């Protein structure tokens, strides 16, 4: 899957199945994710 995390598109490995894992990946990539991911869906959008 590919996710757009605050203007950056990243391929998420299959083992990253939860939003928490994706947030962890975003932090690992140096992206500051602000707010509740469940309430701010614009921060994380699945892309084709």
TrEMBL record:
<dbReference type="Pfam" id="PF09643">
    <property type="entry name" value="YopX"/>
</dbReference>
<dbReference type="InterPro" id="IPR023385">
    <property type="entry name" value="YopX-like_C"/>
</dbReference>
<protein>
    <recommendedName>
        <fullName>YopX protein domain-containing protein</fullName>
    </recommendedName>
</protein>
<dbReference type="InterPro" id="IPR019096">
    <property type="entry name" value="YopX_protein"/>
</dbReference>
<feature type="domain" description="YopX protein">
    <location>
        <begin position="26"/>
        <end position="45"/>
    </location>
</feature>
């Amino acid at each position: 899957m590919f996710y757009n995390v605050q203007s950056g598109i990243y391929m998420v490995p299959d083992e990253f199945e939860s939003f928490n894992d994706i947030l962890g990946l975003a932090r690992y990539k140096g992206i500051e994710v602000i707010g509740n991911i469940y309430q701010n869906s614009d921060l994380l959008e699945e892309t084709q």
